[in-house]
Amino acid sequence: MRAIVINEPGGPDALTWTEVPDLEPGPDEVLVEVAATAVNRADVNQRQGDYPPPPGASQYPGLECSGRIVSLGPGGRDHAWNVGDEVCALLSGGGYAERVVVPVGQLLPVPKGVELVEAAALPEVACTVWSNVFMVGRLRPEETLLVHGGGSGIGTFAIQLAHARGARVLTTAGSPDKLQRCGELGADVGINYREEDFAARVKEETGGAGVDVILDIMGGSYLDANLRSLAVNGRLTVIGLMGGRKAELDLGRMLVKRLSVHATTLRSRPVEEKAAIVSEVTEHVWPLVEEGTLRPIVDRTLPLPQAAEAHRIMESSAHVGKIVLTN
Ligand SMILES: NC(=O)c1ccc[n+]([C@@H]2O[C@H](COP(=O)([O-])OP(=O)(O)OC[C@H]3O[C@@H](n4cnc5c(N)ncnc54)[C@H](OP(=O)(O)O)[C@@H]3O)[C@@H](O)[C@H]2O)c1
């Protein structure tokens, strides 16, 4: 089979489409013929050598895919998946390939009404947003969510899901066009972070109260402003470090407002934790996709051998939503 490999960390041209050894699924795994995968910021970090795959994970990039099951692992099976089933999957790596081995707990059905290729744009954003905003952040329908980077793959899904569940959504993005798209997806308030102090605007838009939950991709550079933007009992969930990993934490502000700060990453979680998230996503999120309330937001689709071009686009932040790569 062929896959995109990273022989040496570097720029987009470090991604090379190459012949690699065939794969065999183990117990409680299946082999999936990949129809499509999608690009995540983490793939860019991996390519640059800053985000190595966790132990045991494929060395090829790619944290999600859609495709068809072509074989089942050996041994007795206590799952309902069969050869020929169309699936999408959350991966620890290896999606940028013609085939990938997937633990059965990380498989999801392709939601009815979604094309197989489009379905590749869903697993990573659905699992990340559900686990952080709802399982960790416990966002309730009457509450308010601030989503940073509303035009990102993650942001476009977080806006739709929180809006669908009845929450008020504020979002930041770096251009009027992106903010307009965010509004179309359900954001109630758009804040251009290049022109406005987002914490001041959050205060203004919430009558001085602040927001209940923040989904943050910036980390260090936004920590203080995020804490200032939270309401009493507010929850900050940090999932990205695009603004650095270190900052000063004002515990006094946390004490007075009874705040909590969480930071999580999906990729390094054990298979059982991923399976629990996948199961909740299938139960709570997939019905909203099937009824058309949530859609995969695909900016563009390129052939997988053009992964380098897809990374260039992601690094320029010219995209809104997901960049999909097809076999
Ligand atoms: N922890 C996890 O499990 C997990 C899982 C998935 C993703 N993530 C993280 O989530 C983040 C988004 O991932 P993605 O794949 O969706 O990436 P992406 O589509 O490339 O999005 C990154 C976004 O950040 C925006 N941005 C840049 N600087 C900003 C700033 N100062 N304030 C607000 N927005 C800013 C960019 O657009 P504009 O500047 O043009 O607005 C762009 O839309 C990444 O940090 C990724 O590592 C974490």
TrEMBL record:
Residues 10-325 form the Enoyl reductase (ER) domain. Keywords: NADP, Oxidoreductase. It holds the Pfam family ADH_N. Transmembrane segments: none annotated. GO terms for molecular function: NADPH binding; oxidoreductase activity, acting on NAD(P)H. PANTHER family: OS02G0805600 PROTEIN, QUINONE OXIDOREDUCTASE PIG3-RELATED. This is Putative PIG3 family NAD(P)H quinone oxidoreductase. It comes from Spinactinospora alkalitolerans. The lineage of its organism: Bacteria, Bacillati, Actinomycetota, Actinomycetes, Streptosporangiales.
